[in-house]
């Protein structure tokens, strides 16, 4: 499926890209092994995001070399951010630079850097290239669906948030993601991945009604009210 | 709704039960406040289980006094178990004893104790009374549905398990719960609460397929294989 109809910008052919990508993969994976207690953004996440980028590259006519290198490196700085608080997008961009320099692929640096630096919504750097847009969308898609649900709950648990605080994140961030997508195809995937999240929130609200308990104790119905509470800490996924 | 058609075994009327129950509620709640960093079995869980017991009491013709006291106390020993490892069912039964003695309600102790001690599946004490059966079912029902999903993920995160390990719990325990229910009505609720869990597991498997990534790297498909891994630690919910 990658043997034809792919676009490359700096690397000469697919077999060279495959070789470079394998080295990048091994390098990033080894970085995560050094920090394996930092679970919330695991290497699995990088693999899923890169998988989505590969899926979208041909459909959206992106340069596969730029996109793949940006994608595999985009979160390599996450464990560092967990330790010293430095923005992982910046750390990841620097790590990609060093890696590309070592392989004499410095010509790739500018485009890969741009995509990595703009992948994080909260940095408010508008992605300009098609590769940067795909990476931002692919990263956001991994915050949705069943895996997004799993990650949201784990992330809130790691930060000591309770269920009510975790659920605010669904309204404040997750349900807004489809409208932030850069392409019709990613918007459509995002909307379909929101279905399980919406069902989950609806069911939580139904199951949280303690009407019998409250009637018996002659209290007001303590039905879960997620609109009335602000979270202690913001989530910073992307 | 509780003004008629309820059964009491030891307490003379509903207003006395309400007074005793309010005291029990305040006592158990205050115990949880002492240990508020122990989140995995929160006071909310007790309230939901008691709510379910209240819902089922009339339908199944249980003694409301025995059931309510057993239910509100059933997990009061959980924070202690987290600290010193002593079985929470035993600690909870002792706490209920002390509370009932103080209020001169020692006649309730035997039935309440029996229900509390047998609520935990892993203790393998077969519940014999209708109240003990209802409590065991109501407790298990809170491990299912959207709240059960949330609790399973948080619980696995607290124990440092990864997604693959957490998902084994769905097959090994959660999907077996409907068959363990003691009444047709609780079996039916359990089955309907399994739907969202089954949908979640199905979606996780779909979303975990990294086919593009693996084809590109010429690896075998790394599709998530939850059957092939044993969990590091067992879950002990009930």
Ordered list of secondary-structure elements with their pairings:
Two copies of one chain form a homodimer.
Chain A: H1 14-34, H2 43-59, H3 64-73, H4 78-84, H5 88-102, H6 109-118, H7 130-141, H8 145-158, H9 163-172, H10 177-180, H11 184-207, H12 211-216
Helix pairs in contact in A: 1-3, 2-3, 2-7, 3-6, 3-7, 4-5, 5-6, 6-7, 7-11, 8-9, 8-11
Description of the structure:
Two copies of one chain form a homodimer. Chain A is built from twelve helices and no strands. In chain A, α2 (about 45-60) crosses α7 (about 130-140) and α6 runs parallel beside α7 (about 130-140). The first copy, chain A, has helices at about 15-35, 45-60, 65-75, 80-85, 90-100, 110-120, 130-140, 145-160, 165-170, 175-180, 185-205, 210-215. The relative contact order of chain A is 0.11. The first copy, chain A, is mainly alpha-helical. The first copy, chain A, has two domains: about 1-125, Hypothetical protein af1432 (Orthogonal Bundle); about 145-210 and about 235-238, Methane Monooxygenase Hydroxylase, Chain G, domain 1, CATH 1.20.58. The longest helix of chain A has 24 residues, at about 185-205. At the A-B interface, α1, α2, α8, α11 and α12 of A face α1, α2, α8, α11 and α12 of B.
């Amino acid at each position: 499926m990658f043997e034809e109809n792919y676009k490359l910008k700096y690397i000469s052919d697919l077999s060279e890209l495959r070789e470079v990508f394998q080295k990048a993969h091994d390098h990033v994976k080894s970085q995560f092994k050094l920090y394996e207690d930092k679970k919330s953004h695991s290497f699995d996440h990088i693999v899923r995001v890169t998988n989505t980028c590969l899926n979208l590259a041909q459909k959206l006519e992106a340069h596969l070399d730029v996109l793949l290198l940006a994608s595999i490196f985009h979160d390599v700085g996450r464990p560092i951010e967990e330790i010293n608080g430095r923005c992982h997008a910046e750390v990841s961009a620097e790590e990609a630079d060093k890696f590309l320099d070592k392989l004499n692929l410095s010509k790739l640096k500018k485009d890969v850097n741009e995509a990595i630096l703009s992948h994080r919504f909260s940095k408010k750097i508008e992605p300009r290239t098609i590769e940067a847009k795909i990476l931002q969308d692919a990263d956001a898609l991994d915050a949705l669906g069943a895996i997004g649900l799993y990650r949201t709950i784990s992330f809130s648990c790691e930060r000591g948030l309770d269920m009510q605080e975790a659920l605010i994140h669904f309204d404040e961030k997750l349900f807004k993601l489809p409208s932030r997508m850069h392409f019709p195809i990613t918007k459509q995937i995002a909307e379909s991945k929101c279905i399980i999240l919406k069902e989950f929130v609806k069911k939580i609200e139904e199951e949280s009604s303690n009407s019998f308990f409250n009637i018996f104790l002659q209290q007001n119905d303590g039905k879960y009210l997620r609109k009335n509470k602000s979270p202690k800490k913001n989530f910073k996924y992307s």
